[in-house]
Write a structure and sequence with these properties.
Blueprint (H helix, E strand, L loop, with lengths): L3 E4 H22 L4 E9 L2 E7 L3 E5 L5 E5 L14 H26 L5 E2 L2 E2 H25 L4 H7 L12 E2 L1 H27 L2 H8 L4 E4 L1
Parallel strand pairs: 1-9
Antiparallel strand pairs: 2-3, 2-8, 3-4, 4-5, 6-7
């Protein structure tokens, strides 16, 4: 690893992967998957209870408002408290986030090395990013199946059921997950362009002349 190559395509790839990973993190930890109807403390102040895949915000005694993680005991929590579909969604979202986080770090490795064990590092990372996107897609699909749970019906009304929210609305966390999936797939496609840009004749000439740092648009 005696050289570093940075091109506009490789920089775009890294930034796209990083933004997608940050959006996955937002979707994972924020309580804005489902947002309940407005609840007023007084005539001019309204708050909204909400529930996420890991955290929730709710009204407590005397008009207080508290946000925090669920009182969970891991995936062994009873399904009446934490729906089984949400457990699966939590698993897939965490897996997708972890996998994409690793690829973000590995994109930096491609500045110094193009292959490993005879395989293109770009292609391996691209495959991992596609898998990460699919994992989060699974989480986004599984979450609405759990909307029949008592927790959701208390928030959204007794009419809530899979893919029907009654009085609730979709929160920003879901949209972050959707945009993150799209960016993860885009990043996988950009990786092919990044690999091609690193192999250009202009880059090879710079490396052959002994340059240790090559930065080309």
């Amino acid at each position: 690893m005696g050289y570093v190559i940075i091109t506009s395509a490789s920089l775009t790839w890294f930034l796209c992967s990083l933004v997608a990973d940050m959006l996955f993190a937002v979707a994972l930890v924020t309580p804005k998957w489902l947002v309940g109807p407005a609840q007023g403390f007084n005539s001019s102040h309204y708050r909204y209870s909400s529930v996420g895949i890991y955290t929730r915000c709710k009204l407590v005694n005397e008009g207080g408002f508290h946000c925090g993680r669920f009182d969970l005991d891991g995936l062994a929590t009873d399904s009446s408290v934490y729906p089984g579909e949400w457990k699966a969604a939590m698993f897939f979202l965490s897996l997708g986030f972890s996998l994409l986080s690793v690829t973000v770090l590995l994109t930096l490795l491609t500045c110094c090395r193009q292959s490993a064990c005879g395989k293109s590092i770009h292609n391996m990372i691209a495959c991992a990013q596609v898998v990460a996107g699919i994992c989060v897609m699974m989480a986004l699909f599984l979450h609405p199946i759990g909307w029949r749970a008592a927790r959701v019906q208390r928030l959204c009304g007794p009419d809530a059921e899979p893919f029907y929210l009654a009085d609730c609305t979709i929160g920003v966390s879901v949209y972050c997950g959707i945009i993150g999936v799209l960016l993860a797939f885009c990043a996988a496609g950009i990786s092919l362009k990044a690999e091609a840009s690193n192999m250009r004749s202009r880059v090879r000439r710079c490396v052959e002349t002994g340059r240790k740092f090559v930065c080309i648009p």
